[in-house]
């Protein structure tokens, strides 16, 4: 099989963790970056969940696409499945994305499973900030996760006004 693309919208953008031969800015239509996944381990607990990113229906999302050599397909997909599908809150899909120069390609994407018990729903910025504030998990404070995500996105020249508003409301 030939090369394939992987779409990153969160930590995959700055910490992909897999070999690739090209990185391009890309847009996924029909899904948006959202704090829509309840975190019970890394950024919260079951008693006091935090929120982490997922791709949820509606709008569009600017992220990065990584071109992976076809001979690494099995290795990279195994890595991504171990990383992204631990609790099955994400669904692996092949979706069309548009690369920065207009080309349309299919990419492996991990979208939020709206039927999973960790799916938090379509939250407004105020409600998301209330959940994030004070949540702490094994990887640290949820506020730090949001602040770090916004900083990384800005460093890549990607604006996410909704997430920036959440960060402002939690005081980061």
Automatic annotation (TrEMBL):
<dbReference type="InterPro" id="IPR013024">
    <property type="entry name" value="GGCT-like"/>
</dbReference>
<dbReference type="GO" id="GO:0005737">
    <property type="term" value="C:cytoplasm"/>
</dbReference>
<dbReference type="InterPro" id="IPR036568">
    <property type="entry name" value="GGCT-like_sf"/>
</dbReference>
<dbReference type="GO" id="GO:0006751">
    <property type="term" value="P:glutathione catabolic process"/>
</dbReference>
<dbReference type="InterPro" id="IPR006840">
    <property type="entry name" value="ChaC"/>
</dbReference>
<dbReference type="GO" id="GO:0061928">
    <property type="term" value="F:glutathione specific gamma-glutamylcyclotransferase activity"/>
</dbReference>
<protein>
    <recommendedName>
        <fullName>glutathione-specific gamma-glutamylcyclotransferase</fullName>
        <ecNumber>4.3.2.7</ecNumber>
    </recommendedName>
</protein>
<dbReference type="Pfam" id="PF04752">
    <property type="entry name" value="ChaC"/>
</dbReference>
<keyword id="KW-0456">Lyase</keyword>
